[in-house]
Amino acid sequence: MPMVTVSISPQQAAGIRAAVDSGLYASGSEVVREALRLWDAARRRGELAEAPQAIHAGDNSARKGSRCVADMFADYEAEKRRHV
Predict the structure, then answer these.
(1) In the chain, is it the N or the C terminus that has fewer CB atoms within a 10 Å radius of its CB?
(2) Angle, CA of 47, 28 and 51, to the nearest 5°
(3) Which pLDDT tens digit goes with each residue over 3-52?
């Protein structure tokens, strides 16, 4: 499997560790792969902004109808916990 190096915030790293420590995931890689699957599915459904760089530049029109991937992942995790 290809390896990719990314930088994440300390809060994101803590979230990954917490997901693994809770037993919901076997490894940090599994958490990231799940997050990427959710991101890809949301992107295909058109739920993400077309131009993320526009959002960071302050163009809120690009955000209409879109959701932050972190929010989607948090919702998914909460739903997963409800069914455990």
Answers:
(1) N
(2) 25
(3) 889 899 999 999 999 999 999 999 999 999 999 999 899 888 888 766 55
Angle at 48 between CA 69 and CA 37, to 5 degrees: 50
Q: Give the sign of the dihedral formed by CA 31, CA 32, CA 35, CA 40.
A: negative
Contacts of 73 (CB under 8 A, 6+ apart): 34, 35, 38
Instruction: Kindly report, residue by residue over 69-80, the tens digit of the pLDDT.
Output: 677 777 777 777
Tokens of 43: 């992107």
DSSP structural state of residue 49: -
Cα–Cα dist 65/32, whole Å: 24
Calculate mean pLDDT across residues 55-84: 65
The dihedral over CA atoms of 18, 69, 57, 46, expressed in degrees to the nearest 10, equals 180
